[in-house]
Amino acid sequence: MRIVSLLPSATEIVCELGLGRELVGVTHECDHPPFVRELPKVTRTLVPDDAPSREIDGLVREKLQSARALYNLDLAVLENLKPDLIVTQALCDVCAVAESEVTAAACSLPGQPRVVNLEPMRLSEVFDCLRLVGEAAGIAARAEEVVARLQARVAAVLERTRSVARRPRVALLEWIDPPFGCGHWSPELVRLAGGVEVVGREGEPSRTTPWADFVAAAPEVLIVACCGFDAARTRQDLPVLTSYPGFHELPCTRSRQVYLLDGNAYFSRPGPRLVDSLELLAHALHPDLHPLPAGLRPAERLTAEELGLALPARR
C-alpha cells in the first residue's frame, strides 16, 4: 500500500502502526519520526514560519475569513506518488489542507485513492483514529495492539493520580500573542495528570482568551505549550507573556510554577505522542508521584529572570 499523510499527527499514527515503509509522501511540517523529513512533500504553507506570533495569528484569521487556503496541495507531486490511501483531517482549518480540496484531488487521481479523515476532540478519539487508519490499511489487529499499549500507559498515570491529595489549578496556554486557552484533548490531559484546568474547555476547540480571564482564574501552575512552536521559538515570546497586566501577581508566577513544553512535538498533535504529553504533564505537576519516562526531557521550569521577577540583592 502507498500512503500519503496530510498532517504531522497522521504521519506519526501511520508510523506508530508500523506502516513507515508504506509512507510515500508527507507535508512540509512532518518531522517525526526523523526519517519522514526525507520523503516527498505534498504541501507548502502560505504563512511564514519566521513571522512574529501576532502577525501569524493575523494572517491565519485573514485567510480563514476570506476562505483562502492556508496550505497548498502540490497536485503534481501527489499524482506522481500514486497513493492508495490519503490520511487527512477536517478538525482544524489552520492545521492542514482543506477537506474539500483533498476530496477533489483524490477524485481526480487515477484509481481514486481512499481518503481517511481524522477528527479527534478527545484522547479516546485519538485512539479511535489509530484504529481507523489500521482498518483502512488492512492491519486492524495490529492497530488494536498499539492502542492497547498506549491505553496501558494512560491507565498507569491515572492509577497513580488517584492518590493525589490536592489537585493544583492549572492553565495550559496554547498561544501567547494573543493568548489562547487550551481545548480539545488538552484539558482532559490536565485532569488525567492530576490537575484542574481553569481556563480551557474539555472537548471544545481552543479559543482566543482575554488575558483578564487568566488573571481571574489565578492558576497555581501555568503550562506554556504553543501550538506548532518548539520550546526555543516559544521562548522568544516570553517577554510578551511577562508584560501582560497582572502576570507577576499570579500564584503560578509568585511560586515559579511556570513551565515550558514543546507544543510542536506535544499537545498540538493528536497522535500517539499525546500519551507522552500526558506523562510529561503528570511529572511536571506531581514529580514525586509520576516518574519521567525514559527518553523524554522534562518540562522546563522558567527561572526567576525569565519570569521577570526581581532577584534578591547581593550582600
Overview of the structural elements:
The structure is a single chain. The protein is α/β, with parallel strands linked by helices and 315 residues long. It folds into two domains: 117 residues, Rossmann fold (3-Layer(aba) Sandwich), CATH 3.40.50.1980; 139 residues, Nitrogenase molybdenum iron protein domain (Rossmann fold, 3-Layer(aba) Sandwich), CATH 3.40.50.1980. Helix content is 37%, strand content 14%. Strands 7, 8, 9, 10, 11, 12 and 13 form a seven-stranded mixed sheet that branches. The protein is globular. The relative contact order is 0.11. The model has no long low-confidence stretch (mean pLDDT 90).
Keywords:
seven-stranded mixed beta sheet; Rossmann fold; alpha/beta; single chain; 315 residues; 37% helix; 12 helices
Summarize the structure.
This protein is an alpha/beta fold. The chain has helices spanning 8-16, 53-65, 75-81, 99-108, 123-136, 140-161, 186-192, 211-217, 231-235, 238-243, 251-254, 273-285, and strands at 3-5, 23-25, 43-45, 71-73, 85-89, 114-118, 169-175, 180-181, 196-197, 207-208, 221-224, 258-260, 300-301.
